[in-house]
Amino acid sequence: MHRRPRSGRPPRPRQLRALRRLRRLQRLGFAATAAVLTAALLGAEAPQDARHTHGKQDARNTKGTQDARRTQGEPGAPQAGTAAQVHGWGQPLPAWSDEFAYGSEAEPAVPDRDKWRLAGGEPGACWPGHAGNGRRCDANTRVVGGKLRMTGEADGDTGWLASPYGQRYGRWEARVRSRATGEDNAKQYHPLLILWPDSDAWPEDGEYDYLENGAPGEQCAEAFLHYPHPEDVPVQQEFARKCGVDLREWHNIAVEWTPDHVRGFVDGVEWFRFSGGANDSRDCIQCAPALHQTIQLDNFHGSGLQSAVYEVDWARVYAPDEADGTDGAEGAAEVAEGSAETDGAHGAEGAEGADGLGAAPARGRP
Length: 366
Fold this sequence. Notes:
By secondary structure, the protein is mainly beta. 10% of the residues lie in helices and 31% in strands. The chain folds into two domains: 13-50; 57-342, Jelly Rolls, CATH 2.60.120.200. A hairpin with a 2-residue loop joins strand 16 (262-266) and strand 17 (269-274).
């Protein structure tokens, strides 16, 4: 990486003391902070990788380019941190959040029906899967003592769960991991965390897939953020990817939605942010109406899949700030039961990744 030469002036004693402290920061893992402060002390330009946490970079979509920022965060930030802790979101809404502190391996429990809507609408029921592939079955989503477990079977039956509560603006966070349990046959399940429109009107009312991967346990977190737009135009979305995230292990995945932006977090560190982008074909990306949480392990292949497990340690919902305006927790409406069957539709038209890693994989809607 090219860097400008440092000033030829020798450091003063005060600078030397500061530099010793900065080197200690580096040893403790706060490399990005140390690099910026060192550059400031010595009159040099900060390295590009330390500066870009507050910079802008291109994010391209199916209809043009918008300003988007994607921040990597401090390498020394707590890996097990939550966005709620780091960014001061306060306490989760208890009626909307679930710690999954019930059930057991010996006696798996149906998810709390005061907090969740079940696949098929009731215990033991099923309905068609994503795009008609396999089935979403209640029996494939159970709480087993401290965690929710979704199982995707080789025959195409899989799990699905949705919150009955939606709000316009707010924050959602879940601690998740996923893994394949069968032999790799290139027919993998897709683990997702989605904010889906309460209206069930897609794509008119948008969709935020703040975690969506093409296989369990991948090494890169991916997200697809859909603009609200008419059905008669190509899918309008943004794509983000953060690599170096082993999704076989527990990670805290979060999204914040305000009147100004939609931004995502992994273990408390921001990894994407999108805002604006309205044009003749679509509304701004943060202009969706009320949305609610869904947790999905989706079948894109019909039958003969590689079996998989998707686990959720907890799922928490936070009210929007009062300054965010309307449709907060006090006024949020319960989602209509009849909209359940098609929650989680999503698509793509080859949007290029926000981190420049190439075209987004194609996604088909039901």
